[in-house]
Amino acid sequence: MGFFDSEIVQQEAKQLFEDYQSLIQLGSHYGKFDREGKKIFIEKMEAMMDRYRIFMKRFELSDDFMAQMTVEQLNTQLGQFGITPTQMFDQMNLTLERMKSELEKQT
After folding, report:
1. Residue 61 near residue 53 (C-beta atoms within 8 A)
2. CA pair distance 45, 5, nearest whole angstrom
3. Which domain holds residue 54?
4. What domain of life does the UniProt record list for this protein's source (predicted)?
5. Number of structural domains, the chain?
6. How far apart are CA 20 and CA 49, in angstroms?
7. Is the full-model pTM beyond 0.85?
8. Where does the chain have alpha helices with state H?
9. For residue range 35-48, what is the model confidence (pLDDT) as tens digits?
10. Spatial distance between the Cα atoms of 60 and 19, rounded to a whole number of angstroms
């Protein structure tokens, strides 16, 4: 069975995408959140990034051709912006750390 034939993989991909879309939509109102709301949003984004990182690691570790092609496509797409997947995750984590730092200053 191929990597993408797995119902578990398909469900996780679907859930990850839906959760990400919801958080991005919610994040557009971040400036209106109270301190606790901002804290929860940051925690949800960190959890999302962890899930995404694990999901991508599954692709990298798979010997399935389509999984490897997906990794290559991501590398190519990010490469057009001059970054690697690791740099993308590092940048996202840095952004979340800055958000937490700003939140702590508001106390």
Report:
1. no
2. 28
3. 3-105
4. Bacteria
5. 1
6. 9
7. no
8. 7-27, 35-61, 65-79, 85-105
9. 999 999 999 999 99
10. 22
